[in-house]
Design a protein that fits this description.
The chain has five helices and eleven strands, in the order H-E-E-E-H-E-E-H-H-E-E-E-E-E-H-E. By secondary structure, it is α+β, with helices and mostly antiparallel strands. The strands form two sheets. Strands 3, 4, 5, 6, 7, 8, 9 and 10 form an eight-stranded antiparallel sheet that branches. Strands 1-2-11 form a three-stranded antiparallel sheet. Helix 1 crosses helix 2 and helix 1 packs across helix 4. It is globular and about 40 Å long.
Length: about 230
């Protein structure tokens, strides 16, 4: 199997842990609504005043829509989440990924299980390598992730219920790898679907992760709209 340096187990573990609400996700810790970077105030935008979504502009020409009703997480909440995830990774014998930069994080004020995380990191040569990945390579990669997730499961309360095949998609002139799974809910809550969109653009990666709880049709529709809106210009 072709091994890409950016697709290590710790990185996927980090995402899985970040998408698992804990004390830092409580509504008392959630910040007030904020503007979407690069778009002005969603509520005041005349061009999309009738839309439930506002445009989010990211580096490297990446754009997507974000639900206006979702709240942007502040730096204090981000730090609590990352510190907690790093501690669990350490107990599982894994290190926090280096050079990973948070670009945007938000969640639904109704249910924090519905959330959006956007990160970026260096990805030297990864796009060209990814172009050559076969279906067999992607299956092998999923097996590696499964083994890593089992390590973390033993030191946390996070359980993956179902894995879905890793997909390789063309996005304009670039490549995206899609990793998705369903994990158990927290404290008896409903299972949560997670989709990780890893956009490989030159020597960098932008990772867009979205999740929603099973059985909540409006949140599912919102997440699917945001996924379908992702583009590279």
């Amino acid at each position: 199997m072709k091994r890409l340096s950016i697709f290590n187990v710790a990185q996927l573990m980090m995402v899985l842990l970040l998408m698992s609400p804990g004390p830092a996700w409580s509504q008392s810790a959630a910040p007030a609504p904020a503007t979407v970077p690069g778009s002005g105030s969603p509520a005041d935008s005349a061009s999309d005043a009738t839309s439930a979504y506002a445009p989010l502009e990211l580096p490297l020409g990446v754009r997507m829509d974000v639900a206006k009703s979702w709240k942007i997480l502040g730096e204090d909440v981000n730090k609590q989440i990352v510190d907690s995830a790093a501690d669990i990774l350490k107990r599982g014998g894994l290190e926090l990924p280096k050079d990973k930069v948070n670009l945007f994080r938000a969640n639904s004020p109704a249910l924090p299980h519905a959330s959006l995380f956007v990160n970026t990191q260096p990805a030297e040569g990864a796009e060209e390598e990814a172009r050559g990945l076969t279906d067999a390579d992607l299956n092998d990669l999923l097996d590696v992730y499964k083994a890593g997730m089992e390590k973390v499961r033993l030191t946390s309360n996070i359980t993956v219920l179902e894995y879905y095949p890793i997909k390789k998609l063309a996005m304009g002139k670039h490549i995206a790898l899609i990793i998705s799974y369903k994990r158990a809910g927290i404290n008896g809550g409903p299972p949560v679907y997670v989709r990780i969109n890893r956009l490989l653009i030159g020597n960098r990666e932008i990772s867009i992760t979205l999740s929603y709880p099973e059985g909540y049709k409006e949140l599912e529709a919102a997440v699917k709209h945001m996924v379908s809106s992702i583009r590279i210009e």
